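Structure Section — protein described below
Tokens — whole-number codes for backbone shape
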Amino acid sequence: MAKAGGPRERRFGRKQPRVALLRRRPVRDYAVITLGVLITAFALDAFLIPNRLAAGGVSGLATVIYYSLRDIGVNVPVGIQMLVMNVVLIAVAIRVRGWRFGARTIYGAVGLSLAVDALAWMPNLVPNDRLLAVLYGGAISGLGLGLVFRSRGNTGGTDIIAQLLAPKVPFGVGQILLAADAVVTIAAAIKFGPTLALYGLVAVFVSGATIDVVLEGFSVEKAAFIISERSDRVAEGILHDLKRGATGISARGLYSGEPKEMIFTVVSRNEIGTLKEIVNAVDPKALVVISDVHEAIGEGFKEIGA
């Protein structure tokens, strides 16, 4: 058991070695941010902008303004508009909060603005099917943005607005971002009509879902919480049959008031059946709670920093 006064937790299996601090790899990070920016710009130029799909944020607002100005004979490229908006937002952010936003935000925001105009020559890859444009544009832009975020970068835009407003209003950053996307959707509905505005909103959700997959991966691991009167034998089966680590956490039954030991372990999806067999063979009356794990980092799973 743990020392007196410490957390009531027991670790099954061998001790874990001390983990060294992650090395910073700025060259790799900036390379990945650059790749992410180019992928995002490709999605905007090949799928979203030519199909008049305003997928939220600064790029969506710039798309609405671009077509509004073009209707009166004025041509202001989307990338230039994004650059102006981002430069203004970054300048305000630096003035209000100093240089805390860092070089990666400036690099990502300015880089995406320039890349959108640099790739503007690309043809519309799905001119006759807006649903495919939404799916491809949302997924590919989400992939690009996910790579940027994974390397601790940012593309500016409404993220900056949300971070500036959050301390001053009774709403969180996520709520402010949703409100900003709603404003862009309303503007798109006024200019392009409700159908295209809703397509743009779908692209926002597709992009967000793809970003989550890039950052967290697919849910292929499962977390299991096991309460058993024979926790030691269950743990032995996990350690020796599954070759997985396990942690024993001291708990107490609120109805009986009796102390119990809860086992916590993380296994892959294809090991769930074996885990259930082990528990059932040792203690058929055990309580087993299994939940999804978005990402497992450490021994036996993905390496830290990978």
About this structure: Strands lie at 9-12, 221-227, 246-252, 259-268, 287-293. The longest helix spans residues 26-48. The first strand starts at residue 9 and ends at 12.
